[in-house]
Amino acid sequence: xxxxxxxxxxxxxxxxxxxxxxxxxxxxxxxxxxxxxxxxxxxxxxxxxxxxxxxxxxxxxxxxxxxxxxxxxxxxxxxxxxxxxxxxxxxxxxxxxxxxxxxxxxxxxxxxxxxxxxxxxxxxxxxxxxxxxxxxxxxxxxxxxxxxxxxxxxxxxxxxxxxxxxxxxxxxxxxxxxxxxxxxxxxxx
Length: 189
Prior knowledge:
This protein is an alpha+beta fold. It has one domain. Helices cover 35% and strands 27% of the residues.
């Protein structure tokens, strides 16, 4: 067993991917970060769910949000923490034991190795092979990019509305004050 075994783990901006690791008859997780590697006694989906909760949501809530925003219902990408650009996507159905969760932010490049295998190069220049076809990997990457774009658009719209509402009273106040032409407002008696 890995010397870097940990009990608790929340996904962070440094997490590149989480893959299942069979240890005896139990399914663990191998967590690969930019400069470190850990083993957790929890399944990858359990770490994803716990991380959603850590960032004030539930896995089901994030799934429903993705469905509402981009219409995807299967192999749903998850916005674990959009404010820190933490978006993960599954390589297969999350209910399957071989499902790997990949960080969208860290993928630099990918290429076909075999019909059912894709080599993924991450931002730190490390490459790993995943049991997923090139087209499926690309599809998951594009779905996650769409989710990120739509969510950032929503956040931007909300910020603009908030700015408008915060600025509006001042604008209305200025337009409601009337002054006689040629008089200084502070000199009125």
